[in-house]
Amino acid sequence: MKQVKIGQSVPRIEDHRFVTGAGTYIDDINLDGQAYGVALRSPHAHADILSVDLSEAQALAGVLFCFSGDDWAAEGFGHIPSKSGVRKNTDGTDFREPPRHCMAIGRARHAGEIVAFVVAESRAVGVAALELINVDYQPLPALTDPRAAMAPGAPQIWDDIPGNLCIDWELGDKALTDAAFARADHVVSLELVNNRVTAAPIEPRGAIAAYDAASDSYTLYNATQNVHANRETFAEKILHVPSQKLHHLAPDVGGGFGAKNGVYPEPALLLYAAKKLGRPVKWINDRSESFLSDTHGRDQISRVELALNADGKFLALRTDSIGNLGSHCATIGPFTISGGSARTQGGPYGYEAMHYRGRGVFTNVALIDPYRGAGRPEASFQTERIIEYAARKLGFDPIELRRKNLIPADQLPLKTAMGLDVDCGDFPHVFAQTLAMTRRPGYGDRVAASKARGRARGFAIAPYLECTGGAPKEFAKISFTADGRIAMATGSQSTGMGHETALPQILADHLGVAITDIDFIQADTDATPIGGGHGGSRGLELGGNAVLQVAREVVEQGKAIAGHLFDAAADQVHFADGHFYIPDTNHSRSLREIVDASVDADNLPAGLEPSSMNKETTFERGIISIPNGCHAAEVEIDLETGVIKIDGDWVVDDFGTIVNPMLADGQVMGGIAQGIGQALMEDIRYDPDSGQLLTGS
Description:
Elements: H1 15-19, E1 35-41, E2 47-53, H2 55-59, E3 63-68, H3 69-74, E4 107-108, E5 114-120, H4 123-130, E6 134-139, H5 146-150, E7 165-172, H6 174-182, E8 186-194, E9 197-198, E10 206-212, E11 217-222, H7 227-239, E12 246-249, H8 265-277, E13 281-284, H9 287-293, E14 296-297, E15 300-308, E16 314-326, H10 333-337, H11 339-342, E17 353-362, H12 376-394, H13 398-405, E18 414-415, E19 421-422, H14 427-437, H15 443-452, E20 455-465, E21 473-480, E22 486-490, H16 499-511, E23 518-521, H17 539-566, E24 574-576, E25 579-581, E26 588-590, H18 591-597, E27 615-620, E28 628-638, E29 644-654, H19 661-680
Parallel strand pairs: 1-13, 11-12, 16-17, 22-23
Antiparallel strand pairs: 1-5, 2-4, 2-6, 3-5, 7-17, 8-15, 9-14, 10-11, 10-13, 15-16, 18-19, 20-28, 21-22, 21-27, 24-25, 25-26, 28-29
């Protein structure tokens, strides 16, 4: 392949493997002697577990091992901790985090919680064994609505957590916000529901665990977005063994969208069973189980208020949100209703003041964790809905009301009323670009034509402010192999987003090598000492910068070696198109020649060790990145049938340097599709009385 550059739409290298069926997903991996695990899940949303009788299941031919929550508790294993970035209530007290054990111990708190686990010679035998497990449940009242869960006299999901309240957190200047509302000419308020959804990635969750008695160590293949952070939890927090005893790796992962970022119980159960049996154990979630047991997203109820002056200038924004966390704190869960939703509250508009209150509440439903934005889309939804409502109620043009309140470019950098440092951007320009792409001329005629056909037509435009980054550090390592190839290992990880192309594209551009000469290694705790996986749109911001940083270190090292070979100072050596050279001389060596020379100590300046061209680095960002953009859409609705036609969807994004435009476009298009899905078709519903999942497919 010819030399590629940053900014080119290089086709995805990994796609050939995927479209020819050569991808390696969890269910493609089979280890010698492998057994199969299946989970018995609670049919009740809330019930005391009086007894679990495993005897009949254990007696079934082909069943190897059965255990219940009481058995798990007897082993003394730890629980799954939350890693929420917000851990304090407004009054300074700690948020309330009940133990999230890997199995229900004494009480089930949502339909789908694991009550027992069976390991068998085949999955079919394991499933048959589930029918032979006898569990005596005492059903309890179930709560699905967080408002009802906070009401006086509501059933207690956790005995030591009054009012079922996990966290009560605020951000912003309440006094300044209240003062702005008091002198406003207009105040509008709106109650909003951001419906519960689930990621439903094309590949369900799954894992395979193995134990090696000789080294007293484990190997875990896991369809996860974050092998490093989750290794620490599985090893040290749950099993109580050093992290170094667990080799955690992810093969190809078929989508995540946040739902595969956190820690789940099943891999821990597999690790336990693998050691107990001395055999590898595989578990694959089926689609119905996924709806019950995967983490969900969104599910916020918000009261949003906007204060304006007579001319429509925004004065203040006030938001009070209640988040349905489910039965436990998920890995990040409480953060979505607190810091996740608060940081970008208000969008790219100017306000004198803002105040946000977020309360996370326990109920008897599945857990909430990040889903495609982890709070930021919720903030955009709240902001844009109240602005649209204000425009219509007060008689302002929705487009012009937004335009006049966008923060001008000459006011940047600034710190928003929510404390977010916005370093750059031109929000009015992005807004104008988006509007120019739409078909506004003739819109009135299209509205009239739709009305004549018994249809309604609408148009909306919505700018947004984002923040990215996830964990603040990322690792990258480059090794030059004897066969002329380059091995590049990163702690950043793809679950289908194109890292295998974009990250090598950065290295190929900077080192002047063919992208096809780069072997990409990811999601392997043995290959990289640290890593942030994927979450918070961090892949290129951190992973890309780590690759760029290590590439620059390679070049600087190469200049020192080349200078020694040229009998010149390193600062005289230039590097371009894969060659080290001194201008206006015949001194020139290719990168590969310098790499080969670096193996021999005689070719190196004093102080350098052989193979010193192999480099590794950890990139650490400063402040988080603040992308922005604007979306617009025009739709027509058939009032008789409810059929919705999207006549146009336009978007302008300010993402900074675009490494691969085709990949970036694909990510945006996927986000649009998922947004449309939530707006029009997706809604996880539970029966309000029984807590049973009603939308299990």
